[in-house]
Amino acid sequence: FFFKQKTAYEIYQCDWSSDVCSSDLSEILGANIRARRKELSISQEELALRCEIDRSYMGQIERGSANPSLAVMYAIASALAVSMSELLREYHSITLSTPKKKRKKRP
What we know:
By secondary structure, the chain is an all-alpha fold. The protein contains 6 helices and no strands.
């Protein structure tokens, strides 16, 4: 699915502490970081060292359980040689392979 464009009013009214969209973004970010890291054959520890953050924090980011600052996102994007916007794309579009479509089972 694609994110529905929200109006300024909807964004203002959003309860960010429990809104699904913020957790979705964290999961998308983490999945894209992990996919790109694996594509480059970089360990989680090596990526964390390049970004000057703790390896356990990198793991939390990849699992979508931590929300990194813009500075940390920039460091990660730089280390992975992608833009910050690419890290936030909805599917793993930053990898060389295209997303696989699920086949519908015929009855």
